[in-house]
Amino acid sequence: EVQLVESGGGLVQAGGSLRLSCAASGFTFDDYAIGWFRQAPGKEREGVSWISSVDGSTDYADSVKGRFTISSDDAKNTVYLQMNSLKPEDTAVYYCAAVYGSHLWRSPKIYDYWGQGTQVTVSS
Fold it and tell me: Which pLDDT does position 39 carry in this prediction?
């Protein structure tokens, strides 16, 4: 059974940091790209950051570039999202998702598997 389990969300003040984790199981981790997406109330789901387990390439949305860092521990089948200098507009439910291959697709519609999400709330 394919599973993606996010953790690490919470409430933090503006300027603070959080590290999200996405633990994957049930598929060959090294063959997939993992993306982090977020969805705020009343808004569409948007991409945040992506990493390929195939070749280690990464990508970031402009809104988080320089503040967020994505990384992967292949031995643990886990992808992390280190979020620094958090802003109130980063408040959302954060999801990780997996898609077969090395391409870093920005559209959430491409992704095959999704986690249940973890809430991140940034207070001003």
Answer: 98
